[in-house]
Amino acid sequence: MTAILLKGKEIREEILAELKSEVEQIKKEHGIVPGLVTVLVGEDPASVSYVTSKIQTAQNLGFKEVQVNKPETITGEELLELVHGYNRDETIHGILVQLPLPKHIDDKKIINAIDPDKDVDGFHPVNVGRLVIGPSEVKFPPATPAGIFEMIRRSGIKTEGAEAVVVGRSNLVGKPIANMLLQKAEGANCTVTVVHTRTKDLAFHCKRADILIVAAGVPQLVKPEWIKPGACVIDVGVNRVGEKISEKSGRKIAILKGDVDFDMAKEIAGWITPVPGGVGPMTITMLMKNTVNALKYKLGII
Ligand code: GUN
Q: Which residue out of 118, 119, 121, 266 is catalytically annotated?
């Protein structure tokens, strides 16, 4: 069997086109566009690159985009003040503080200071609670699990009654996607098992999975013989395992491997995400969707 590739790039384009026309419609009917502020502290190259992509995507969609760059030396109090200011700003519907923050700042304090109705990352405890209670309570599902959920839904994979096994129990991916697949809702209704570093027999659980979601951060942890024939395999891992010279640019680039042995697994699975190019491209898109929704909630149109 050769699995169907679930390509985030293609699904992303579909969603971005939908969002763009929604933004135009809202602007026409209500005279307002979604407002997103991105706060970047310091110059960590990975954070700069993420934030740049977020800003570009927001601008392409016609958002009001406010960029705030602060030096590493900013104090926690100053950052809190900044967040409070955007909480009060009527033209801003989404506040994104790029993580990680410098060590001297307590990131929990900063996240907890964001108005939960502007927390488009879905990291505030109120939004975590809404996600667990779901489905009608959910406002802002975090971007990576939301991207996974959307990929599964748009690919027509049957979830009702399916055995879903989630490898990894992080707050960013494992716990939220497990909760989302568990909900009594269309696109969910799975029987969910979460496995982690202390699980006795990882292989046993993975082999039962109709839907296997792997977010462990361990290169090629999941072996091909752990995959049930025809299963849907979502690999969230992005592990740097070395460097190579790019044929296109002639520059050094990272060699990335997922948490699943892709080359072998694709012969067994029914659907599989490549790394890179699978889940990755979905995350910024889902953040944009949350920002559009933040405005729609405010306008009372969802
Ligand atoms: N750093 C890495 N991923 C994320 C994300 O999704 N949101 C924020 N705010 N920071 C991040």
A: 121
pLDDT at 1 > cutoff 70: no
Ligand 1, from 36, 55, 86, 98: best to mutate by most atoms within 8 Å of Cβ? 98
Residues near 11 by beta carbon (within 8 Å), at least 6 away in sequence: 150, 151, 154, 155, 282
Contacts of 27 (CB under 8 A, 6+ apart): 33, 62
Instruction: Render the burial of 99-118: b for 16+ CB within 10 Å, e for the rest.
Output: eebbeebebeebbbbbbbbb
Q: Which residue's C-alpha comes closest to atom 11 of ligand 1?
A: 99
> Kind and range of the H or E element at 119?
none
pLDDT for residue 138 is more than 80: yes
Position 98 pLDDT exceeds 80: yes
Identified catalytic residue from 20, 27, 28, 54: 54
In this structure, the chain runs to a length of 302
Find the 99 Cα to ligand 1 centroid distance in Å.
5
**CA 176, 178, 180, 183 torsion: positive or negative?**
negative
| HSE-up (13 A, CA, CB side) for residue 137 | 14
Report the relative pairing of strands 239-245 and 252-257 from DSSP bridges.
antiparallel
Model pLDDT, residue 115: 98
The chain-wide mean pLDDT, for the chain, equals 97
- Find the residues whose C-beta lies inside 6 A of ligand 1: 50, 96-99, 121, 143
When pLDDT is averaged across residues 246-264 and rounded to a whole number, the result is 93
CA distance 292 to 274: 28
Q: What are the tens digits of pLDDT across the range 171-184? A: 999 999 999 999 99
